[in-house]
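User: Show me a protein chain along with its predicted structure.
Assistant: Here is one chain, sequence first, then structure tokens.
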Amino acid sequence: MKLFSPSAAIAASAILNYDLELIAEWSLSNSLTLNPAKFQYLSIGSSVLLSRVQSFYVSYSVPLNTLSVARILGLCVNSSSSFVQYISLKCRAVYLRLHLLYPLYHILTVSQKLHFSQLLILI
């Protein structure tokens, strides 16, 4: 992972493409083949910044696949750095778990209900 300031977006693209070119050359010199179809990247930033970022290439002929959403350690990250999908997924999971506990609604005390809801949100 490389991080660059917004003002250096064009230079960052050139640096990353150069690094990818070095990797391709090294792999060829060591009799390794790269599969560009398996290379992917996710650019994170504002729409203005992302419009200035060039495409990335493993070799000059094959562009890398761009991801719009990536799952990193269970966290869904998108190019605009919003976590709407992740929060939506977690809310749905909590709702489904609470729905499973609904038959016990009349048996549990208020403090137990509160405790269960807090546990389910933290999971």
